[in-house]
Amino acid sequence: DSGVTQTPKHLITATGQRVTLRCSPRSGDLSVYWYQQSLDQGLQFLIQYYNGEERAKGNILERFSAQQFPDLHSELNLSSLELGDSALYFCASSGDRVNSPLHFGNGTRLTVT
Amino acid sequence: AQSVTQLDSQVPVFEEAPVELRCNYSSSVSVYLFWYVQYPNQGLQLLLKYLSGSTLVKGINGFEAEFNKSQTSFHLRKPSVHISDTAEYFCAVKGPVTGKSTFGDGTTLTVKP
Fold this sequence. Notes:
The structure holds two protein chains of two kinds. Chain A is mainly β. Helices cover 0% and strands 53% of the residues of chain A. In chain A, strands 2, 4, 5, 6, 9, 10 and 11 form a seven-stranded mixed sheet that branches. In chain A, strands 1-3-8-7 form a four-stranded antiparallel sheet, with no helix packed on it. The mean pLDDT of chain A is 95. Chain B is mainly β. In chain B, a hairpin with a 5-residue loop joins strand 5 (32-38) and strand 6 (44-50). The model of chain B has no long low-confidence stretch (mean pLDDT 93). Chains A and B meet through strand 5, strand 9 and strand 10 of A and strand 5, strand 6, strand 10 and strand 11 of B.
């Protein structure tokens, strides 16, 4: 058990809709990362938050947004969904040291129909 | 900029045989190196990490990896694999300043009886 909790485990929705994915980091971790994993593009870094502030941005589409709340949980919002957004979305957290490893949740599998 | 190349996308091997999963990286500065494993329907888990010191690092489940600075490689090895080692393995590097993680495309290890 990594200590990172993601909900829901599965989401099925239609094109054009909006969904919210939720992540609770490991106790004590201030950094939260979001990744997208698909068969054709592998593991893609989306965005990182540190103690409520955006720290780094990766290949995140403008239709996607995220935030980290004062209790350190994070939400990833995906809007105007397209078929190509179907993927596994992972949240990870890490300690403060720059060499700290990432601890991943079990992911949310999003299916857009 | 940093990058990671996992030289084999798929590695089939028989049970109890040795295995090596190859990882090369590119970076203009020293990096921290990690191997993660992803079992079906799960998130990534840390197998082992190289931060500094001895170039041979041991991880969980009998895996080990050797850091070779001159060849910029961090190959993962196990002397005798089990069916339960069937999974996807990711090599990752983390920069010393930003702490940004860069992942390889993954290697699917399939252990056959």
